[in-house]
Known about the structure:
The chain is of the alpha/beta class. It has helices at residues 21-26, 31-50, 53-75, 236-242, 277-294, 322-335, 345-351, 368-377, 416-428, 442-454, 461-467; strands at residues 80-87, 90-92, 96-105, 114-118, 129-132, 140-148, 153-157, 160-165, 172-176, 181-186, 208-211, 222-224, 246-248, 251-254, 257-262, 298-303, 308-309, 358-363, 383-389, 395-397, 403-405, 432-436. The protein is 29% helix and 24% strand. Helix 2 runs antiparallel to helix 3 (53-75). The longest helix has 23 residues, at 53-75. The model is unreliable at 1-20, 199-219, 397-403, 405-416 and 461-469 (pLDDT under 50).
Amino acid sequence: MASQLPSAPPAPPAQPPRTGGFRTALGGLTTRGRSFVAAGVAAAICAYVLGQPDLLRVGLLLAVLPLVCVAVLYRTRYRVAGSRRLSPSRVPAMSEARVHLRVDNVSRVPTGLLMLQDRVPYVLGPRPRFVLDRVEPGGHREVSYRVRSDLRGRYPLGPLQLRLSDPFGMCELTRSFSAYDTLTVVPKVEPLPPVRLTGQANGYGESRTRALAFAGEDDVIPRGYRHGDDLRRVHWRSTARYGELMVRREEQPHRARCTVLLDTREWAYFGSGPDSAFEWAVSAAASVSTHMLERGYAVRLLTDTGTSVPGPEGTGGFAGDSSDMAGVLLDTLAVIGHSDGRTLSAAYEALRTASEGLIVAFLGDMDEEHATSVARLRQRAGGAVAFVLDSDDWVASDATGRMVAVTDASALPPAEEGTRGAVRMLREAGWTVVEVRAGDALPELWQQADRYRSGENAPGPQHEAGAAR
């Protein structure tokens, strides 16, 4: 899923700073350069007071040398091109990516000592800095560094900066490129075991085919001949019409559909950070979406706001190319955040006219009103599985930042008291419901949902009493 992009085109050559002119360049004096200027001015004053012309010449030399270095460095016209390549450009959370930098000297004169640094967000790590030796005309230098983020998102990298220094270390000037790249940190995807969550409902489960009804030769839907096709299926009339070998398409694949419903209400989750309930739900939604695409399902992602990915175009918003669609879904989940809504009615309205299919929902805290809306979605689905994350079973940070169990009911959203009742309502409506606690692994819960659906280890009164501990 994470793909490596080709190297980005080189950025335009860095140009010297123009704002403020030479006065701005004076701001690049190093501590050594300022010390020389101060010493030169002091020597000149002492020479005037004491009447020592030799000391005056020494003072002028000390004061003028840093200024000459500033003038020479300011007038330097190095033509340097820089480029950046990410490997890969889309990386799962808690994984590393490598950034490759290349600097090319496109001028006819060699460069001096260069300090190269790249600007990166603090969540990716410290700002990388490199010292490059003299680069010959037409030559280049390549360096690389690693970045890592535990938080999903889109992070800009750049712009690349060059710090020029004179041989005496009197002055340093910074020149920046304008181009930058974006690193996408997507939710972590866990491989899931193949299970049959949809049962034997018509049109769902493993990929099936249905025969086309033909009223006659004119109703045949031909397609191009493929290697291995039976020659007895050649449709000669279409072959003569199109000028290439055509065969009868006697079967048409019927693709199963899956809607992944993600509850993003801020009110429904407690806590934040990589180990929070919401981040678990986002990662689980990414894992299920990828898994169903790999199994041949047409998948769409739906949130509580009614927003659908890939969108309303096509067949009800579903898309089926597993490679492209997986990237679209992961990019969407990389930047998805909390919504300010308090109900799930928008998701219900989005599914009212939807065709039958499998619904896999990841839900936060609910009350009976929310459970009623979700329960009605079962009528539009060939199969429905809900993973409910109760805030009472997750962790939070105390004042010192230490992770502790949530025991204070006053710290929880008001809906927490009704979550257990909402779970019972969903089960009574025909949903396969799995309660998620902190530390649970999605692959085991995925298999548990299949056992619940098939009647094995189905949750009963004893299970619910234990869950309410």
